[in-house]
């Protein structure tokens, strides 16, 4: 096939792999704890063929990297999601689809794009109800065999899900329910949202589609013990704009942020929309509520990276999010969101101890940068090379920066089911710049600054990935 | 758990070190254009140690891994697999190295008999497509067959039980008859002072075996066939069980033992007919080609002053040495004949190749790998990485070389453009690893115009370790 076009998101760390492999025994530097047993899955964009148009890295074909931990041994396997789109492009041998703009598809496949249920399955992955589901937020989830990574196809919860599914479902640690949302639920650019609940054995028992204040990309949402929050922030979708040749998705800071607050026991009819200044959050760390006061932590941007303005001009460069706390007192007559930054360093890809999701919690982890490695992508001047443990009660940060590495989203794994909150391991796939290879690094979650206790080295690179999940042995 | 490879062994670290995975890559990224008439599969074999080795590691001791590049309609697909030898399977189960393939005295007690009885070895040196079988070969053991498509391991191939010796990594196929001739050194057992010569017909039947005593027990890596002769070059990398029992190197460079080139008439020759022709001390791993004319035998090889990679009997280094293309002439009409040597090319050279349609016959074109002197290796035996492909024209001697820059190149294999194209008309295939990106690519050259650079590069998104030897299977 043709060479990759000249695009920073197709070079170095971002350059796609062209193979699928099995690596039975990674070389271990240091020590991998023997009580860490299970599989860590990562999902990320790995275009199979050179993109037809300007490449956006939200649009590459999904590739899963599975790291299997067994009593101190670590193996690795990677496979593409064999979506319909992947199969078409493998057959044709070149790109037939534009990433973000369905109107810019090869005419032969225009109907396909408009009816496709599988998308590129490239953003996230969740293991729930004995199924490994790849999530991409623009389409149905895509199921893979958790052991072989063989593709099974779109999963619609026995036909009950007819909208998209977001890449950030939440699992309630108390009852195992999976709660997720969908944006543009009834079709591309529609101004509606979906909300769904799936029991721990995989049955969908609740589904709603309802109007949003405007058509927006709603990447993540928040669930607390008693509330569900829908943050509608102005990365807007507009078919008319796309038809005029302008960006289908754009940052419109003149529009307010609308935060929908819904009681978990209620329905979308019970949503209260709270208006605030435009801002953007890709990822929330966690949220909880007490006596009608909702508190949540978010990786907060004043304006988002990666998306243009409505007229196509770029947003300001080098924008970094920081950890912020949102507080909403529903006892007030006109509740509004109070926002305060908790730290001034960069913070993205936040994770928590999943046993404390939706509840009062203390520990979070995220990626950050010590600003020592310059980046070459349009939206960030520095490489995210650090892992931070942040105590949301004391606001103490404990971090470790790799001198020559890119970090991916961390993953917390408890030492045992009954261990204290935050007692366990933090896993992170690190790309080592000098060797052009990657290592799966394992930290003591409570002593990040000590650096990895073990590194499982690959002899190849794991390119940029977005999100992951852990399946215990 | 897999422990790190020792940092102090260059052969276990970049750029020589192993990769830890097996993969498939379809439709590689192509720069330039892959010739539409290039149709078939290039297989390469090399050591790719799976686990941190026991004791001292020698480059020759790594587990074999085969890399296949399938080329068809301008598209290149790739696949690699370890060869599932008995050693590989045992260590896979154990999760660590328990066998030292180079030293039977350094194995886990449970496996102390293993090296002495193992029939599968490491399968790590070369690979040959002949008579419908893809054979990985390692010179210390019989060949090991792998599936040419999946690279799945099939098992040891003994020519239906007829082969009781090892098989050299450098068998020769006569282009006119399709006959394959190979030999084994230390044929009757470890450290034995003998060789066996085997002949295999075009259907893959082993038709003849000749056991021949040698002047001393030697490691004989390559040999030469011509139309009328088989040459067994006994050069003094000696094998000694006594030395090994005393803790010395089992194989060592002993120039005092002298150079003895065994010349066997190819047709009807028996052990009694071998004639040992002496020559001045030198060492050659690989020969480019040989031919004979009225009893005068001509052989071209990449000759060094002494053997690299092997110690002196007391375990010391033999020091640096550089191979250069050298022509041997042996006049069999002269009863007192010695081998006459003449260096015929100024550049360093290794992994020599010829157009296989001219193997054993008078020929004009050869190819080899070479350093350009700009990529220091930090190694004792050779100061610079081999990063250059050379084409040697015996007629014009015109310089035709291409440097791949900050890179390492593998052996370059010649593939004719068509069955009846003129000698040398075709392509040269080599795997090139960039020392900057640490990624590998298949380079395809016009074999008679190497200096103009590759016609095409097929890029991998991982590294292929340098490896040793390859073979070409033409498309069906």
β-strand number of chain A:
35
- Class per helix and strand makeup of chain A: mainly beta
Instruction: Output the radius of gyration of chain A.
Output: 21 Å
Overall mean pLDDT of chain A: 95
Structure description:
The complex is a heterodimer of chains A (473) and B (476). Chain A is mainly beta. Chain A has a domain at 1-155. Helix content of chain A is 4%, strand content 42%. Chain A has helices at 84-92, 110-115, 239-243, and strands at residues 20-23, 27-30, 38-45, 62-70, 73-80, 124-128, 131-135, 142-144, 151-154, 170-171, 178-183, 192-198, 204-211, 222-223, 227-232, 235-237, 249-251, 257-263, 272-276, 280-290, 293-301, 322-329, 337-346, 348-352, 363-368, 374-377, 380-382, 386-391, 397-401, 405-407, 411-414, 424-432, 437-444, 454-457, 467-472. In chain A, strands 2, 30, 31, 32, 33 and 34 form a six-stranded antiparallel β-sheet that branches. Chain A has a five-stranded antiparallel β-sheet with strand order 1-5-4-3-35, with no helix packed on it. In chain A, β14 and β15 form a beta hairpin. Chain A is globular, with a radius of gyration of 21 Å. The model of chain A has no long low-confidence stretch (mean pLDDT 95). Chain B has 476 residues and is mostly beta strands. Among the domains of chain B are: 34-157, no CATH class; 364-465, no CATH class. Chain B contains three helices and 33 strands. In chain B, the strands form eight sheets. In chain B, strands 2, 28, 29, 30, 31 and 32 form a six-stranded antiparallel β-sheet that branches. In chain B, β22 (324-331) and β23 (340-348) form a beta hairpin. Chain B is globular. β1 (20-23) of chain A pairs antiparallel with β1 of chain B.
């Amino acid at each position: 096939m043709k060479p990759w076009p000249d695009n920073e998101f197709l070079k170095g760390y971002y350059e796609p792999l062209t193979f699928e492999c099995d690596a039975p025994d990674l070389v271990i530097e240091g020590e991998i704890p023997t009580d860490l047993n299970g599989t860590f899955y990562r999902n990320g964009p790995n275009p199979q063929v050179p993109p037809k148009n300007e490449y956006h890295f939200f649009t590459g074909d999904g590739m899963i990297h599975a790291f299997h931990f067994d009593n101190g041994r670590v193996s690795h396997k990677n496979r593409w999601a064999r979506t319909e789109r992947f199969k078409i492009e493998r057959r044709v041998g070149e790109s037939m689809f534009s990433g973000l703009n369905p109107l810019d598809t090869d005419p032969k496949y225009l109907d396909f794009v408009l009816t496709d249920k599988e998308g590129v399955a490239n953003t996230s992955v969740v293991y729930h109800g004995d199924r490994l589901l790849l999530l991409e937020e623009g389409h149905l989830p895509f199921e893979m065999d958790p052991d072989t990574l063989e593709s099974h196809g779109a999963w619609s919860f026995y036909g009950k899900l007819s909208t998209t599914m977001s890449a950030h479902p939440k699992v309630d640690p108390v009852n195992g329910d999976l709660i997720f949302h969908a944006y543009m639920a009834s079709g591309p650019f529609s101004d509606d949202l979906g909300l769904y609940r799936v029991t721990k054995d995989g049955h969908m028992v609740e589904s709603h589609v309802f109007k949003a204040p405007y058509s927006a990309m709603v990447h993540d949402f928040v669930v607390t013990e008693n509330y569900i929050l829908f943050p509608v922030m102005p990365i807007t979708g507009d078919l008319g704009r796309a038809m005029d040749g302008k960006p289908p998705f754009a940052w419109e800071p003149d529009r307010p942020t609308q935060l929908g607050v819904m009681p978990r026991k209620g329905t979308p009819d019970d949503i209260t929309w709270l208006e605030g200044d435009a801002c953007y959050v890709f990822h929330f760390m966690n949220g909880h509520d007490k006596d009608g006061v909702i508190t949540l932590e978010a990786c907060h941007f004043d304006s988002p990276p990666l998306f243009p303005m409505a007229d196509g001009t770029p947003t300001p460069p080098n924008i970094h999010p920081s950890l912020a706390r949102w507080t909403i007192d529903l006892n007030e007559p006109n509740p509004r969101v109070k926002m305060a930054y908790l730290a001034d360093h960069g913070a993205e890809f936040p994770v928590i101890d999943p046993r404390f999701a939706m509840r009062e919690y203390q520990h979070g982890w995220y990626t950050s940068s010590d600003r020592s490695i310059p980046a070459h992508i349009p939206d960030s001047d520095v490489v995210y090379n650090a892992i931070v443990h942040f105590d949301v009660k004391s606001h103490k940060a404990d971090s470790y920066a790799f001198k020559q590495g890119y970090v991916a989203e961390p993953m917390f794994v408890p030492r045992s089911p009954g261990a204290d909150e935050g007692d366990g391991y933090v896993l992170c796939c690190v790309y080592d710049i000098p060797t052009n290879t990657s290592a799966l690094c394992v930290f003591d979650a409570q002593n990040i600054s000590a650096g990895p206790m073990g590194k499982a080295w690959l002899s190849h690179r794991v390119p940029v990935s977005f999100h992951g999940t852990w399946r215990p042995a | 758990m897999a422990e790190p490879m020792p940092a102090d062994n260059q052969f276990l670290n970049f750029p020589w070190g192993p990769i830890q995975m097996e993969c498939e890559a379809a439709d590689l990224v192509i720069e330039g254009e892959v010739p539409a008439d290039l149709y078939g599969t290039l297989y390469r074999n090399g050591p790719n140690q799976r686990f941190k080795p026991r004791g001292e590691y020698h480059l020759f001791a790594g587990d074999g891994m085969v890399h296949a590049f399938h080329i068809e309609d301008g598209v290149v697909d790739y696949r690699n697999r370890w060869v599932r030898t008995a050693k590989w399977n045992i260590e896979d189960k154990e999760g660590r190295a328990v066998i030292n393939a180079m030293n039977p005295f350094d194995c886990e007690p449970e496996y102390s008999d293993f090296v002495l009885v193992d029939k599968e070895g490491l399968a790590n040196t070369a690979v040959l497509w002949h008579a419908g079988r893809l054979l990985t070969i390692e010179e210390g053991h019989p060949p090991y067959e792998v599936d040419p498509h999946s690279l799945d391991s099939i098992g040891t191939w003994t020519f239906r039980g007829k082969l009781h010796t090892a098989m050299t990594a450098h068998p020769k196929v006569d282009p006119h008859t399709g006959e394959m001739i190979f030999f084994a050194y230390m044929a009757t057992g470890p450290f034995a002072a003998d060789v066996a010569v085997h002949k295999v017909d075009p259907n893959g039947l082993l038709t003849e075996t000749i056991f021949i005593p040698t002047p001393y027990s030697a490691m004989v890596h390559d040999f030469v066939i011509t139309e009328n002769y088989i040459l067994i070059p006994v050069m003094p990398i000696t094998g000694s069980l006594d030395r090994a029992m005393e803790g010395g190197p089992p194989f060592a460079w002993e120039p005092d033992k002298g150079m003895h080139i065994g010349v066997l008439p190819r047709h009807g020759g028996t052990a009694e007919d071998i004639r040992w022709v002496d020559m001045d001390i030198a060492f050659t791993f690989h020969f480019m080609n040989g031919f004979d004319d009225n009893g005068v035998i001509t052989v071209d090889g990449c000759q060094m002053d002494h053997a690299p990679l092997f110690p002196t009997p007391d375990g010391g280094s033999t020091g640096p040495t550089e191979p250069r293309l050298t022509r041997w002439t042996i006049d069999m009409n002269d009863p007192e004949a010695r081998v006459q040597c003449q260096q015929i090319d100024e550049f360093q050279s290794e992994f020599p190749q010829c157009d296989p349609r001219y193997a054993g016959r008078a020929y004009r074109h050869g190819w080899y790998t070479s350093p350009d002197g700009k990529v220091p290796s930090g190694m004792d035996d050779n100061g610079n990485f081999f990063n250059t492909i050379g084409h040697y024209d015996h007629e014009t001697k015109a310089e035709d070389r291409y440097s791949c820059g900050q890179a390492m190149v593998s052996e370059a294999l010649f593939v004719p453009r068509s069955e009846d194209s003129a000698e040398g008309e075709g392509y040269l295939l080599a795997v090139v690893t960039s020392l900057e990106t640490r990624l590998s690519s298949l380079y395809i050259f016009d074999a008679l115009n190497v200096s103009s650079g590759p016609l095409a590069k097929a890029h991998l998104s991982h590294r292929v370790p340098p490896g040793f030897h390859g073979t070409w299977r033409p498309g069906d």
